[in-house]
Amino acid sequence: MPSPAESRATPVETEGREALIKYLDRETAIARATGGRLSVLILELRRVDRVAALLRGPPPATTMSLVVDRLQKAIRPEDRVAPINDEQVCLVLPRLAHPSQAVLAAVKLLRALDRPISYEGGTAVLRPCVGIANLPDHGFDPAGLLMAADVSRHIAATREEGYHVFQAEDAVETEVYRGLDLDLERAIRANELELHFQPILEIVSGRPVGAEALVRWRHPKAGDVSPLNIIGIAERTGLISTLTFSILNGVLREAAHLRQKSVREPRFAVNLSPKSLVDRELPAIVEQALGTWGGTPGSLTLEIPESSTISEAERSTAVLTRLKALGIRIAIDDFGSGFTSLSELRKLPVDEIKIDRPYVAGMIGDKGDRALVRSAIDLAHHFEIAASAEGVENPAVLDELQRLGCDFAQGFLIARPLAEKVFRDWWTSHTAV
Question: Which of 179, 200, 202, 225 has a Cα-to-Cα distance from 187 of 20 to 30 A?
Answer without folding.
Answer: 200
